[in-house]
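Morning. Coffee machine broken again, so started the prediction first thing and wrote up yesterday's gels while waiting. Chain of 214 residues, entered below exactly as on the submission form.
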Amino acid sequence: MKIYIIILFTFFFHNLGFSTIQIPDKIKIGGKIYCLETFPFDIYLKNHKTKIPFDKISSNSTALRRGYIATYEIKNNLIFLVDIEIEIENNSNRSADEYKSVFSKIFKSKKPILIDWYSGLISIQMNLWDNYLRGENLKFTIIEISNGNILKQKTFDEQQYEEFLTQQFIEFKKTPEYKALKEKSIKEYESVEEFDMVKRTLILKYTTKILYEW
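Came back before lunch.
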């Protein structure tokens, strides 16, 4: 299943302008850290016109084009942001990547923050974060969030997850939002089929609620 995960990450980030497989964010559930495939902190950066505080030792890794790794934690049906890290240059002989927290520089506090700026869907790849390219028999959890509050969630195996994404896109095509997106950007694609293929891959970006009840 390693090939599947590489294809998933490569295709997703290629359509975001990245060609290298990207390091996912982290999410803590029951004391374990899993892979978060969506990036709520990007919304915060955009809305607050905030920039990541890099320094002279920051790395320019092609596997971390967004510039940071965010760590979230689920507690009492709420999702909190608990850390923001940047990759730094490794000047030692160790092969492991090195990271530096910049959370307190951004928020002037070390206290976890409810992600009340985010409403939408997140996708969690249910294998441990440090093995995000080595998963077999993976499960995926989709969580619907409103201002940091968990409204509903569903867990799928790989085949069910792909079917969910397909059905979610079919439901999305019935909405005014799909029509507006198509009118706005269809000229960038050679055909409606190509447009649909790309947007289906990014369906969690374009929908904020679970549209297809499994």
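Residues 2-157 form one domain. Going to sketch it on the whiteboard this afternoon.
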